[in-house]
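2024-03-11 09:14:02 INFO worker-7 job=invfold-0412 stage=load source=structure_tokens
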């Protein structure tokens, strides 16, 4: 008998990779891959909300992506801005709350304003939280959390002895959410590329060769189905083994 151990993951985190290769395969410039990838974002967001996922975190632009040619960086920032303008109303209508995580000091003032506005408009929505990681790096996240703890200690608001996993977690982006249950990386690479380093400690990892612009509702449902069959132990033993041991 095959055991189905999980239901729908409460939190899904995705590295949306492969836009450039998709464009190349279609004889198009890279930016066309990013544009078509934006359609996958819409489809995956709606599929997750429909399937009952409570939080979805999408890696849109990493700390390291700033090293790309200025024309590509500019195009990605423009696309992000247009997506915020165009999609915020739709997210709001779908009862989805938007949050942007990452080093905002590196974003343009115009983009920072758009992020703040979209967060403000959708702040009370309850169905699903959509986190967009932009100018985000797992190491940046841990570093900024450590800095805030050090400042709290210097101010005398905290004793270094009181620093534990919970206090560190509270300073990390998304520290108020459950860790991702399911991680997906499209595009065939099997690495984390400085995404959610703290949060992925016990996440189930799903890698697919499908390039992001081709990753649509069916692909998303296939990943959810794969997750449903995983057996999670969190360092313990299977519940069935536990019973056997007791017998
Ligand atoms: C992912 O696609 C989008 C971003 C990193 C912003 P890529 O642009 O990395 O596409 P590939 O990996 O070169 O195919
Ligand atoms: C990871 O993809 C970052 C995003 C999808 C935003 P990259 O294409 O930047 O990662 P590497 O360079 O293949 O590790
Ligand atoms: Mg890539």
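2024-03-11 09:14:09 INFO worker-7 stage=emit residues=247
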């Amino acid at each position: 008998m095959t055991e189905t151990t999980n239901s729908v993951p409460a939190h899904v985190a995705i590295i949306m990779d492969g836009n450039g290769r998709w464009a190349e395969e279609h004889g198009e410039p890279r930016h066309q891959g990013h544009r078509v990838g934006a359609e996958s974002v819409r489809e995956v967001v709606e599929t997750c909300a429909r399937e009952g996922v409570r939080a979805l975190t999408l890696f849109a632009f990493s700390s390291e992506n700033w090293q790309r040619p200025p024309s590509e960086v500019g195009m990605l920032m423009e696309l992000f801005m247009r997506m915020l303008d165009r999609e915020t109303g739709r997210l709001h209508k779908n009862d989805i709350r938007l949050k942007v995580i990452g080093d905002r000091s590196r974003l343009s003032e115009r983009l920072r304003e758009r992020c703040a506005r979209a967060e403000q408009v959708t702040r009370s929505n309850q169905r699903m939280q959509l986190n967009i990681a932009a100018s985000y790096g797992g190491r940046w996240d841990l570093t900024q959390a450590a800095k805030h703890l050090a400042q709290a200690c210097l101010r005398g608001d905290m004793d270094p002895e009181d620093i534990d996993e919970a206090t560190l977690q509270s300073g990390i982006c998304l520290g108020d959410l459950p860790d991702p249950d399911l991680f997906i990386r499209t595009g065939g690479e099997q690495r984390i590329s400085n995404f959610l380093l703290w949060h992925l400690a016990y996440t189930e990892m799903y890698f697919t060769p499908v390039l992001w612009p081709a990753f649509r509702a069916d692909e998303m449902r296939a990943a959810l189905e794969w997750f449903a069959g995983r057996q999670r132990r969190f360092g313990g033993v299977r519940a069935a083994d536990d019973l056997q041991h007791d017998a």
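2024-03-11 09:14:09 INFO worker-7 stage=report msg="The pocket of magnesium ion (ligand 3) is lined by residues 17, 187 (CB under 6 Å)."
2024-03-11 09:14:10 INFO worker-7 job finished
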